[in-house]
Amino acid sequence: MAYDSIFRADLFAGQTIIVTGGGSGIGRCTAHELAALGAHVLLVGRKADKLKSVAAEIAEDGGKADWATCDIREEEAVTHLVSELIRKHGPIHGLVNNAGGQYPSPLSSINQKGFETVMRTNLVGGFLMAREVFNQSMSKHGGAIVNMLADMWGGMPGMGHSGAARSGMDNLTKTAAFEWGYAGVRVNAVAPGWIASSGMDTYEGAFKAVIPTLREHVPLKRIGTESEVSAAIVFLLSPAAAFVSGSTLRIDGAASLGGRAWPIHKATNSVSYNGFHRAYLPDVLRPEVLKDKE
Ligand SMILES: CCCCCCC/C=C/C(=O)SCCNC(=O)CCNC(=O)[C@H](O)C(C)(C)COP(=O)(O)OP(=O)(O)OC[C@H]1O[C@@H](n2cnc3c(N)ncnc32)[C@H](O)[C@@H]1OP(=O)(O)O
Ligand SMILES: NC(=O)C1=CN([C@@H]2O[C@H](COP(=O)(O)OP(=O)(O)OC[C@H]3O[C@@H](n4cnc5c(N)ncnc54)[C@H](OP(=O)(O)O)[C@@H]3O)[C@@H](O)[C@H]2O)C=CC1
Fold this sequence. Notes:
The chain is 45% helix and 15% strand. The chain is an alpha/beta fold. It has 2 domains: 16-257, NAD(P)-binding Rossmann-like Domain (Rossmann fold), CATH 3.40.50.720; 259-294, no CATH class. Its main location: other.
C-alpha cells in the first residue's frame, strides 16, 4: 500500500498566506518555511526595506513572496491593505498574526500612551487583521489564522501591558474560532516562551543583561529558536491540524509550568536549580528590592 502522508513538500501549494511582522525574526522564519512548502507569502510590516529584503531572500530560494507596508494599529490602513492584497493576489487562505512587541517597564512607570501603544500593537492590530481577512476573504472559502501570544499566564514583571494584550488575544482566538467555525475557518494561537530572536536582540540594559540567565529557569534548560516557533505555526496552518481550532500551543520548553514549583525542584534536584525569583525578577526591575533582601 502506498501510504499518502499529510506531510508533503507541497503542503501549502496554491495557498496565499499573509505573515505580519514578516520582515524580521519569527515572522521572517515562518515566511521562509511557508514559502519552502509551496505557499505564496505576503509579508506585512511598517518598514519597507526589511520586507523587501525578506521577499528577495525567498525568491532567491525559489519561493514566491510579495510585500506591503501597513501599520496594523490603523483601522483604515488594515481594511485597505487586505482589499489591495486580495485584488492583486486573490483569496487569502492563511493569516499569521505575528506582528507585535513591547518595551519592558514596571507597571508603575507605564503612562497611558505607552500602555495604549502596546495594547494597540498586540491586541487591536491582531483583531483588525483577523476581522478584515475573515470578512473580505475567508468567510467565503475558509482558511486558517494563527495569532501570536506570549507565555505570560502567571503574570510577567516588566511586561504588564503586553501580558494584558496577549491574554486578550488568547480570548479573542477562542471567540473567533467559535464564531467563524461555520465558514471552515480555524483560529489558533502560539504562545512562545523565551526565544532567541532578532526582536530580543533589540532589548537593552537590565533586561538584555538577564537574557543569558533565562535558560536556567526553563525545564528544558535552554531558550527556544525562531524556527521552533515557526514549526508550530506551520503545523497549525496545515491540514495536519484540520480539526484543531480555538487552541493555544505553548512553545516554551515547559517554562510556564510555574515559579511555585521551583523551590520543590531545588529541594529535589539542586544541580539544575538556579533560583528563579532571585536571579530573574528583582535584577530586571527593582534591584533595590533585591539588595534589601540580601
Ligand atoms: C517564560 C517566558 C515568558 C515569555 C516572555 C515573552 C518575551 C517577549 C519577547 C518579545 O516579544 S521579543 C521582541 C518583540 N519585538 C519588540 O518588542 C520590538 C521592540 N519594541 C517596539 O518597537 C515598541 O516597544 C513597540 C511598542 C512595539 C512599538 O513602538 P512604536 O514605535 O509604535 O511606538 P513609539 O512611538 O516608539 O512609542 C509610543 C509610546 O510608547 C511608550 N514607549 C515606547 N517605547 C518606550 C520605552 N522604551 N520606554 C518607555 N516608554 C516607551 C511611550 O509612551 C511612547 O510615547 P512617547 O514617549 O514617544 O511620546
Ligand atoms: N522573541 C521572543 O522571545 C518572543 C516573541 N514573541 C512575539 O513574537 C512576535 C515576533 O517577535 P520577534 O520576531 O521576536 O521580534 P521582531 O521585533 O523581530 O518582530 C516584530 C515584528 O512586528 C512588526 N511590527 C511591530 N509593530 C507593528 C505594527 N504596528 N504594524 C505592523 N508591523 C509591526 C515589526 O516590523 P516593522 O518594524 O517593519 O513594523 C517586526 O517585524 C512578536 O509579536 C513578539 O512579541 C512572543 C513571545 C516570545
